[in-house]
């Protein structure tokens, strides 16, 4: 066998149906240029995105791959890629990007900022998959919506009462979580505590913590009265939201995804490592926890957690296409160093642009294939075992963890 494996391993890696366990909606046609396209290859913002990201190996590779997809003639450049997609028919562009992915089912977090204004509804994406799209509920956004409704109601009367706002929030948020848990369209929850106050969530909330949460609601309400903006970034309140979600999710058997590692400048990097989640993981042994984005650059820490805690799973997404090819291979190798292969799941973290789904799938399949083929070549595993890893990572594990009960729709070529 050569270093890249047999035809069977290649075929399975490149064509087996996939469940995209973490993604976001695509933009509506009329808003297709609402965000800088450089966001396809970077989480940065401002000049770091528009001026620096285009000089990364990740962007150079994406440029060449998209040039082939768009059938550009001559040397592909980033500007040529942007111009080609700008003039393409949007539906044709979406289909050209989605059809080669062989994604059978997408689990969409539709709470990403801007989704309600610029993006399509999650069910709209069914046109590109053979199994229905399902929802992941972003709990901080759910909580913000509830608080905004409560605050607006009080402010409209000209008198505010933070205590009553807090009491109403407790009941409304609990009820909203229970309703989401009972909704068959919802297959899991997601927390972005990593962005707001860090992953060092304090488990449980005692009376003293409860007082601090009430104080946070008061501060948030007074701030909202002045600014009319609402973004929950007060630790006691954010920890309360996560704990409430963990309890409900554990009771209903639905996983909780956590953004870990790779993100933008809002993140405090030292608090984005999943290693600081150990107290939370231990406190909720019955709640399935999915660590998103390979936890890069803390992949080894994430692998350790999946190896020693039965309720922890690892998603290896977003590194495609954000890292160089060598970087992606290195991360996948780190994932496989210690993580049980029945606990890894792939995703695109696709968002806004169909190209994010295309590159996220193309690069992931190729990387997984090559890493596993090299391992087989070194006689550290059999080809049959490598094929099993691919099927579990791309489909079977997510199917089981999220309770989707799907059959892979595969027609080998």
From TrEMBL:
Gene3D superfamilies: Metal-dependent hydrolases. Pfam families: Amidohydro_2. Residues 214-404 form the Amidohydrolase-related domain. GO terms for molecular function: hydrolase activity. It comes from the Eukaryota. InterPro entries: Amidohydro-rel, Metal_Hydrolase. This is Amidohydrolase-related domain-containing protein. It comes from Hermanssonia centrifuga.
